[in-house]
Amino acid sequence: MNKISVRLADWSKDNADIRRIREAVFIAEQSVAPELEWDSEDAQASHFLACEGDYPVGTARLLDDGHIGRVSVLKDWRGLKVGDALMEAAIAEAEKRGLRRQMLSAQVHASAFYERLGFNIISEEYLEAGIPHVDMVRNSD
Asked: Which residues, by range, are in coiled-coil regions (predicted)?
């Protein structure tokens, strides 16, 4: 296996890869309705692609207000620290932009992953797209 690299993606140029990954993870695996997965924020968001060699295997996005979301890794690459690499890139980009507070809506089963990265749960559990979520926040020092 090659080393995983993460790069800032271009929504218009990398759209097919971003869509392929998110459709596989959220729509096919988790049964999220397509109309809930795709929103108007995608066009303005900063997107990240994690690649093994030249092959994109994960993606995430950062909104201008510090919200990190749509973190998704293809099934065969899970457990290989791809999610960590994506989150580290998104957090670093947020901090570079002076966004000292990063937020996300985490699927409950993934909350421990985000806690490892310094996020804290700040809400009760709620359903989003039929999946239990919690709001989480991380403050940069």
From this structure: none
pTM: 0.95
Which of 127, 68, 58, 130 is CA-nearest to residue 99? 68
Closest C-alpha among 60, 38, 63, 57 to residue 48:
60
Q: Closest Cα partner for 70 from 105, 99, 120, 43?
A: 105
* 75, burial (CB in 10 Å: exposed 0-12, middle 13-18, buried 19+): exposed
Q: What is the mean pLDDT of residues 23-51?
A: 95
d(CA 135, CA 139): 14
Q: Please check whether the domain covering 4-139 is classified as CATH 3.40.50.12710.
A: no
State the DSSP code for 14: S
Residue the block writes with tokens 């092959």: 55
